[in-house]
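Human: Can I borrow your eye for a moment on a structure tokenisation matter? Separate attempts, laid side by side, tell us more than any discussion would. Could you pick a protein and write out its sequence and tokenised fold? No explanation is needed for now; the record alone will do.

Assistant:
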Amino acid sequence: MAEKTRSTGRRKGGRGKSAGLRVIPLGGLGEVGKNMYVVEYEDDILVIDSGLMFPDQDLPGIDLIVPDISYLEANREKVLGIVLTHGHEDHTGGLSFVLQRLDVPIYGTKLTLGLVGNRLQEDMPFLTPQFREVKAGDVIDIGPFRTRFIAVSHSIPDGVALSIETPLGRIVHTGDFKLDSTPIDGRVTDYGALAGEGDKGVLLLLSDSTNAERNGFTPSERIIGNTLDSLYRNYRSKRLIVSSFASNVHRIQQVADGAARFNRKIAFLGRSMVRNVEIASKLGYLHVDEKMIAPVEDIGKIPPNQLVIMTTGSQGEPFSGLVMMSMGEHKQITLSERDAVFILASVIPGNEKLVNNTINRLFSIGCEVVYEAADKMTHVSGHASAEELKIMLNLVRPQYFVPIHGEQRHLARHAKLAEDVGIPPRNIFIMSNGDVLTFQKGAKPHVRDRVQAGAVLIDGNAVGEIKSRVMKERRDLAEDGIIVVSLALSEDGTLLAPIAIESRGLFAGDDANVFAEVEKAVLKALKDISSPHSRTRSAPRTGRQGKSTPRSQSARSSHAISLDVEAVSRSVKSRVSDVLRRRSSSYAVVLPLISVQGGEPRAASAADFLEREMLA
């Protein structure tokens, strides 16, 4: 493809104190997700990708995880733009967070910007993003960074690698890629362009490490067509339910092509599936005859053997189409033994239990279920395996190499592959998020500095660095439950009303005997506090000469002794915890809520207050 060159942004940046070229990962190393990489030359910064990551079971209540961009915010005047390699959310999903803090141009291919624009419209309808559409073969100047976009195959169309020419040398970032010689859309990885960059000389290669542990080559996406043909033939009399990643446009195309060959209508269910089908079709990346598409409201009118339903839920995501169907809670679809379900995806590590539970429920309904463990080729990866990674290294022939996009074992394995093709170990850098790889004229590159990097947790509308203490409290509440002891006391510690005890998530919560023991433990705690040694006497007021000022007898009786609420709380928590551990081996959270006559109900300490607020 002919190159197209245009200039955008500042041509040159001012010279800062730390002259040189710096490469800084803010996300994507030691993990699969929240990819974000910074290329900085003097006073100019170019950002590559802005992804998110989904939480695991260790982060209860968290919706999304995005990179910490404190470094970019502190240098916002230097940021020239964000360049996107493709449309997957682990590379684009953080933009809703980032663009509220950085108003910069976004560079991407047509499909990538189409998917991003739709997501931003949902999340931030008030924002008008500065989109700059590019295509494979384009070369644009973004400040001092001459950036070339190179076509690569992946599991989503319109992916690109980047070749970024800087004053100190050329950097190649592969994006997510595989060397598929027979892609569904005919758009192969551009070997010639990559080799051409290698011929010019590449200072640094940043390359996708996801499948570095897999030997050989990743199979072509096209082989899924053969699997689908077999499934369509074997289940001619069944209604077919197909679940896949909503972003895998090539997979959707093959399912639709199979439906056409076997004279079936196709219906799309699930918000992300419907959204991506609409966008990909509108932009020309997906081709489905409109006459084949069945409206959701007409699904019940179509004979089962003439219908394919394509939906989300291949990873067992709560509230996804397939999961709701398996639980009998979907509004439009009720499954039965007349249905065959195809799960065309591999299980992402960490999702095994969710997927297995979904499959088991489908079998319980009586469905036929075809999935990865059923000895069928139901999924192929979009990432290059070991031999393809070595080919990429040989095409680009970099002087220095940094493996990216993978857990620590993937990065280490990819580094070993680089050694196998002849890159000296001293020229390979296995980095962590926040590390700074610095290149300067006349000096060896080094990783010595660090910038702030990490994870920002998004919990509903709350965005921030949620402290480990909060997550520990959430886990404790989820695992052991809570018991609340409400006390109304006078200032001298006298109980003014019956003790109120409530529990949530406590196995012994309905056991009257346990509650009776808890009440006795609270009374003992109050008795301990009411002893003379546990009381705090107020100091007498003094006049200007330091002598005692007389008070009325009533004032002395009213204020001579004040209740130590902190001590009451500690004693109640200790004694109640002992009862629970002895009776039920429970480590439930004990929350004393103490009202003192003439004061407001309050928890006895700052930590208790935070716990109470979290429960509200």
